[in-house]
């Protein structure tokens, strides 16, 4: 929220007699609730469509009480904000109405009157009763997951009767939701979304002239599944999905790299080297691939040293046993 005007400076100007800070700034704000319960001031315009009901949103926000310079609540300290679904994860009615008025990239300031915020009781000890609160909200992105949720709730027969473009759109939405979850290090939740998308595509029989569209989407999902299972420390499953990606594109560098990483974790160093050398052939200057090959060489040397040491000990033990006999 670096482009936000300085809140403390904006609210510290001398107030007209009989008016509080929030009363003064409210006079220049747009009424979006119809009863002046939610007021809005756009700091930076966004672009594209408005947020849709039931969308999942990615936002940065800071919340203030009147006469306080520091926020009583903020998620701006987080490196990756949490993806939140309207109607489920957002508890303030005012914030939900505010988000429905926003576009991607928009930065806005809102005043929420008590009925749209914390009500007559407040939220002791932090929020006093009947408090009007100010929120600065930046809408980083949003995904309309309602269409995907509705489609996935249909029977298999109903899904099969849907146009291919609809299936591809839903699968892509599920993949993007998985990507958001992945970036939040919620790897288990991410792989659930990826598998949901993959199941839709595997069940779909497309005509030959459109099959390439299904395969292209499926490839991306398989690559993401392989990486998610690597993060979940399940290299056998990661390898399986990587190999399925290679069936679609046998020269795909990411798939070869994922398979190589999985084999390293499985200590199958010969197969790991085969996958990684093939990946390097496709992308000779890829930093990650080259680093993995260097690590593999180190692991392999350590492995061979341990094998030699073990053989030496076994031989020495055998020799000692023979002498005693």
UniProtKB/TrEMBL annotation:
GO BP field: piRNA processing; spermatogenesis
UniProt source species: Fukomys damarensis
Reaction equation(s) it catalyzes: [protein]-peptidylproline (omega=180) = [protein]-peptidylproline (omega=0)
Keyword hit for Repeat: yes
Protein name listed in UniProt: peptidylprolyl isomerase
Transmembrane segments: none
Alphabetical list of InterPro entries matching this protein: FKBP6/shu (IPR042282), PPIase_dom_sf (IPR046357), PPIase_FKBP_dom (IPR001179), TPR-like_helical_dom_sf (IPR011990), TPR_rpt (IPR019734)
Gene Ontology cellular component annotations, sorted alphabetically: cytoplasm
